[in-house]
Design a protein that fits this description.
The chain is of the alpha+beta class. It is 30% helix and 24% strand. The protein has four domains: 3-36 and 253-311, Nucleotidyltransferase, domain 5 (2-Layer Sandwich); 42-247, OB fold (Dihydrolipoamide Acetyltransferase, E2P) (Beta Barrel); 321-439, no CATH class; 455-527, Ribonuclease E, catalytic domain (Hypothetical Protein Ychn, Chain: A), CATH 3.40.1260.20. The protein contains 14 helices and 24 strands. It has a six-stranded mixed beta sheet, covered by helices on one side. Strands 3-2-1-14-15 form a five-stranded mixed beta sheet. Strands 4-5-6-8-7 form a five-stranded mixed β-barrel. The protein is globular and about 100 Å long. The chain starts with a strand and ends in an 11-residue tail after the last strand. The model is unreliable at 89-121 (pLDDT under 50).
Length: 538
């Protein structure tokens, strides 16, 4: 399998990174220069408001929008401010749930039962009331873990995590862990032994990422020393500066993507802009010198994404309906918090069995659903409506196919079993607005509904307003500005009714068509005999 990373920065306003496997677009990342990206940044903020009813604090961290800090994202060291001893709290009941650091599932091995002693760095089930921990004006070190979506501000956490190439530094963890994606017990034991030999500073926690499982002790030592130096710089800035202030900013998307996604199975990286190429070359030379020869500057006159036939495929990402290779389709509808995906059979057929047809189509749809969720970066609650199957074996196999396809997704996901209605419900981690929200804005005509009223519907509304105007003795003239189609409908189908209104109300009605007006435009001006405006009693 040939795997390539294509980086398009020809337009300064936008950076696009595509992961292509055997000519098929598998992952897509887009970042606009005009859009602020705060995820991963660390700030020293100030508490501006406390909401006891939702156990959350709003933090001014210096970007113009207050961040949202929930009690579940408050590290136990802050409990001292409320008179609580973290050591005493650690003896209470723990659930072992931890926010996963940058590598999606990078956390320590094993599960924590409620009866087992708590692991250092785990989050306590018991949390003191947030109003007893903080007061307005308190300073707090926070990291942005989720972009603000719509009217919601960014989500913050006091559990700091700083990713390196092979390790993730998590000061609150206080121990050495290994990514759960590394499943071999022998490999995990070997990695943990190497990390203990490196003698990481006490009080700091480290997690070995999946990229570090085949690295030498020297490679891990270099990454560890880099993260320790970086943390010391951060710590000095925290002590010297008063909030709200920026403490640490994540790398740009090119460096960030190469750091987090590039691995030995990527055959080549192509960049079509010279300065971006030089930055990436410098980063690879410093972090992964053995792979520098896989980085190439793209010099052809034909645009990079056009050469790989990606532009049309990217355009298809924004379509509501996605055609499947052998027939059938999936239809994707998204709201602010929920995504509904419907599988349609279309002309897809296998043999003469309806059950087998549904089964094979659902298997193909499961793979495409996983791919579309990654490409569109859809998150929240996702409901998949597969074609009904009677055999339990087929339903379980479709669930398994969807889970296997989602394994390569870097966002955290949870998939439930098929419901009695034949639906497979799942959740996918939402870190930033979806690709659609980043590229499009709500239509000014339909306000995001996707439909507008017909000319007949608008004409009925116009007639109701005119009936109201007829009841006012002061109205001598009514001027209507509507869309051209509405004007045509009124002047043809409603001509008699308009004439009767003019006669009964002793007023003149003028309909002005406009091609540039929105389909639902209804601009109505009423005046008296002297030309003075008359307000309608709404």
């Amino acid at each position: 399998m040939k795997k390539e990373m294509l980086i398009n920065v020809a337009q300064a306003e936008e950076c696009r990174i595509a992961i292509v496997e055997d000519g098929v677009l598998e992952e897509l990342y887009i970042e606009r220069a005009s859009q602020d990206n705060y995820v991963g940044n660390i700030y020293k903020g100030r508490i501006v408001n406390l909401e006891a009813s939702i156990q959350a604090a709003f933090v001014d961290f210096g970007v113009g929008r207050n961040g949202f800090l929930h009690i579940s994202d408050v590290e136990p060291q802050y409990f001292r401010q409320g008179g609580y001893d973290p050591k005493e709290i650690s003896q209470l009941e723990w659930d072992g749930s931890e926010r996963k650091p940058a590598d999606a599932a990078e956390s320590g091995g094993g599960t924590t039962s409620r009866t087992r002693a708590p692991r250092p760095g785990s989050r306590p089930r018991f949390k003191p009331p947030i109003q007893e921990i903080f007061q307005r004006g308190d300073e707090v070190l926070v990291q942005v873990i989720k972009e603000g979506i719509g009217n919601k501000g960014p989500t913050l956490s006091t559990y700091i995590s700083i990713p390196g190439r092979y390790l993730v530094l998590m000061p609150a963890l206080g121990r050495v862990g290994v990514s759960r994606k590394i499943e071999d017990d022998e490999v995990r034991r070997k990695i943990r032994d190497i990390m203990l030999e490196l003698e990481p500073p006490k009080g700091l926690g480290f997690i070995v990422r999946t990229a570090g499982q085949e690295r030498t002790k020297r490679d891990l030592s270099r990454d560890l020393n880099y993260l320790v130096r970086l943390w010391r710089v951060i710590h000095r800035r925290v002590e010297k500066k008063k909030g709200p202030v920026d403490i640490y900013e994540e790398s740009d998307m090119i460096i960030r993507t190469i750091r987090d996604i590039f691995s030995g199975d990527v055959d080549a990286i192509y960049i079509d802009e010279r300065s971006a190429y030089e930055r990436a070359h410098e980063f690879l030379q410093l972090i992964m010198p053995k792979y520098v020869d896989r980085l190439h500057f793209y010099e052809d006159r034909e645009p990079l994404f056009h050469k790989y036939k990606l532009e049309r495929e990217i355009a298809n990402i924004h379509r509501r309906e996605v055609k499947l290779k052998d027939g059938g389709s999936i239809v994707v509808d998204s709201t602010e918090a929920l995504v509904a995906i419907d599988v349609n059979s279309g002309n897809f057929r296998t043999d003469d069995s309806a059950e087998e047809t549904a089964y094979q189509l659902n298997l193909a749809a499961a793979k495409e659903i996983s791919r579309q969720l990654r490409l569109r970066d859809l998150g929240g609650v996702i409901v998949n409506d597969f074609i009904d199957m009677r055999k339990e074996k087929h339903r379980r196999n479709v669930e398994r196919a969807l889970r296997n396809a989602m394994k390569r997704d870097r966002a955290r996901t949870k998939i439930l079993r098929t419901s009695p209605f034949g639906l497979i419900e799942m959740t996918r981690q939402r870190i930033r607005p979806s690709l659609k929200r980043s590229v499009f804005q709500d239509c000014p005509c339909c306000a995001g509904r996707g439909v507008v009223k017909t000319a007949e519907s608008m004409s009925i509304e116009v007639m109701r307003m005119l009936m109201l105007a007829c009841q006012l003795p002061d109205v001598a003239k009514v001027i209507l500005k509507v869309h051209q189609d509405v004007a045509v409908f009124l002047n043809n189908s409603k001509r008699r009714e308009l004439a009767e209104m003019e006669q009964s109300g002793s007023m003149a009605i003028q309909v002005l068509p406009s091609e540039s007006a929105f389909p639902e435009t209804l601009d109505m001006k009423c005046t008296d005999k002297s030309g003075n405006p008359v307000e309608l009693p709404f």
